[in-house]
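User: Teach me something about this protein's shape.
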Amino acid sequence: MATKRTTTKTPTTTAPAPVEPATCQPCGGTGNVAITVRVGRKRRPVGQQDGLCLNCLGEGTDPGTDA
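Assistant: First, the predicted structure itself:
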């Protein structure tokens, strides 16, 4: 018959915590920025629409912190 273990086995190594990528500053991590819509000959602004963030190209992460 096998002997019964009285203590628990402690883990030998622990996995490092995953590093979260930094969020993009211009879009705030959403990947979208507000683009002004202009119309007419004088190019007057009439509103805004969503546009792709050119800093992160829609990913939402800061491109300067690539590991």
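Now, about its shape. DSSP finds no helices and two strands in the chain. Residues 34 and 50 are 5 Å apart (CA to CA). If you'd like, I can walk through any region in more detail.
User: That's plenty for now, thanks!
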